[in-house]
Amino acid sequence: MIEEPTHHNLLRMIPNTMLTKLSLTLLIITGTLTAATPNWSQFRGPNTGGVAEDAKPPVHFGPETNLLWKSVVPPGISAPIVWGDYVFLTAHERQQLVTLAYDARTGRELWRQAAPAEQIEECHRFSSPAASTPCTDGERVYAYFGSYGLLAYDFAGKEIWRRPLERLPSLYGTATSPILAGGHLILQHDGGSTNAQLIAIAPATGKTVWTSPRPLAGESYSTPMVWRHDGIEELIVQGKGRVAAYSLNGGPQQWWVRGWGFAAVTTPVAGDGMLFAGGSGMGDPTEPDDPLFDWKKLLADHDANHDGQLALEEVPESLAWHIRKEVPREVPGNLLGMRALLRDFTDTNKDGLITKAEWDADEAYVKDKFNADRFVAIQPGGKEDSTATHVAWETTKGLSEMPSPLFYRGRVHFVRDGAMWTVIDPKTGQRHLDRERLGTGGQIVASPIAANGYIYVVNEPGTFAVIRAGDTLDLAAVNKLGESVRAIPAISGDALYVRSAEHLWAFGE
Fold first, then answer.
1. Do 300 and 280 sit in the same domain of this protein?
2. Are 132 and 177 in contact (CB under 8 A)?
3. In this structure, are residues 221 and 260 in contact, taking their beta carbons and an 8 Å threshold?
4. Which range has the worst mean pLDDT, 34-43, 383-392, 428-437?
5. Residue 41 maps to a domain
């Protein structure tokens, strides 16, 4: 281990008993140093949990504060990952999908490689064809694009293998990210197709190890994670309609919890022997209805011929549902035309008329708890359908739409648009903080992350709230970047890496 000749000469002078003690001490120190500088190797870091507890990124940072470097990056919303002296991400530039590597010490671009995609998939204008975060095992970096499939590169940028995959139908475009688990590269290949599947690939070759069909899964934007408990590991997959567990060796679903009638966006987290999963749907059923969805008022305002029905042409094109009240109306995807909503979802017989019976059926669907916002705590040990037996508690209040929950220091946290912060006891579901405002406002896209007792929450306009972890709201800092942030930041060592609309930033003290 020690290469200098002078050290070898010194070791020869030390008695064997002392040498043994010294060797053990060096081994302990080396192990400690290695453990203290973990890599952020995939979507949301270690096991997609968003926590790098031993790291010490700065609390105060910005364009003029604790900035190590700042580099221009092409468009995309995939999150950066970090391994040693490398930062990787993906991008969409000039009709090309590219994987890029940067020097983590200087921000210098090291290489970029384009995926051989013949056609770029359509996606929501708030998203990007480069939304999936790459992952790495320290030997190769793996990138996934819905427009092509999987690619593997070595750290010098040489392509090792490529694996085209069918582009499955998805309303908003691809967003799931590959992970490494059980010695395999795992991809949740969901979509509006009977060909949807969970697939495990050999990292060295790109060959299929196993597949598990998911024909009823529908589209999903979630990323799998591994739940370790009671001496076992379960691959957890949140999709449309259910959260399910698979073996890391493949096979059918081992257990599942039902709910969520819409595409999954968030990724589950685990802690204190429990699993936490959920997300938004048709809203919180315990809250008052949006005034727009008042049947009597709609008839009074727009039923021109007074026949007790609503013809689609009677509904003004300008009438729109403001979906996220905490976010400006002009944000892409935040307004849904009422006429289109009635046509696509309420007019079941497609005759251009909305009757009271159709309205009531639509309202019942919205109020069903499996279609509403829903967040659950799941106990281990489930078998097959565990919805009625293994859900310890559930809630519908104040849930996030896109950010995944955070389990940190014995608490479950989630953040809602408008920067509303909730802290929950994992065992009981009791709320220590309930939608407390962080003061930064705005839409929240990136999931919260944590290190060294601090939690980092960034809104889409690029303002960070840094919170001291605890059961009271203790804001340590507010840091403004001045650029849009939709990608989850990365933490490695004592540095914080942030991808904004135009730059990759590295902050450290």
1. no
2. yes
3. no
4. 34-43
5. no
pLDDT computed for residue 365 by the predictor? 86
**Domain count for the chain:** 3
* Side-chain-facing half-sphere of 328: CA atoms under 13 Å: 6
Integer Cα distance of 420 and 441 in angstroms? 8
Do 213 and 223 have their domain in common? Answer: yes
Name the CA dihedral angle for 260, 263, 267, 273, rounded to a multiple of 10 degrees: 20
- Going by C-alpha positions, the residue among 403, 408, 477 that lies closest to residue 440 is 477
φ/ψ (deg, to 5) at 9: -60, -40
**280 and 295, same domain (yes or no):** no
Instruction: Dump pLDDT digits (tens) for 106-159.
Output: 999 999 999 999 999 999 989 999 999 999 999 999 999 999 999 999 999 999
Tracing tokens 């203790």 back to the chain, one arrives at 474
Closest CA to 190 of 161, 211, 207: 211
Burial (CB < 10 A; 0-12, 13-18, 19+), residue 313, is exposed
What's the CA gap between 35 and 29, in Å, rounded? Answer: 10
pLDDT at 35: 38
CB count within 10 Å of CB 290 equals 12
What span, in angstroms and rounded, lies between the C-alpha atoms of 309 and 315?
11
CA distance 51 to 95: 34
Helix-, strand-, coil-residue percentages of the chain, each rounded to 5: 15, 35, 50
Same domain, 78 and 175: yes
Give pTM, 2 decimals.
Answer: 0.89
436 and 329 part of one domain = no
Which residue range(s) make up the domain with 20? Answer: 5-36
DSSP secondary structure, 284-343, as one string: -TTSPPPGGG-HHHHHHHH-TT-SSSEEGGGS-TT-EEE--TTS-TTSTTSEEEHHHHII
Same domain, 379 and 331: no
Distance of CA 432 to the CA centre of its chain: 24
Q: Are 456 and 496 in contact (CB under 8 A)?
A: yes
| Residue 186 belongs to domain with CATH number | 2.130.10.10
Instruction: Give the residues across from 507 on adjacent strands.
Output: 67, 496
| Cα 245 → chain centroid | 18
Q: Which token pair is 379?
A: 């106990």
> Do 322 and 266 fall into the same domain?
no
In this predicted model, what pLDDT tens digit does every residue of 355-394 receive, in sequence order? 999 999 988 888 888 888 999 999 999 999 999 999 999 9
Is pLDDT of 31 > 50?
A: no
Cβ proximity of 466 and 479 under 8 Å: yes
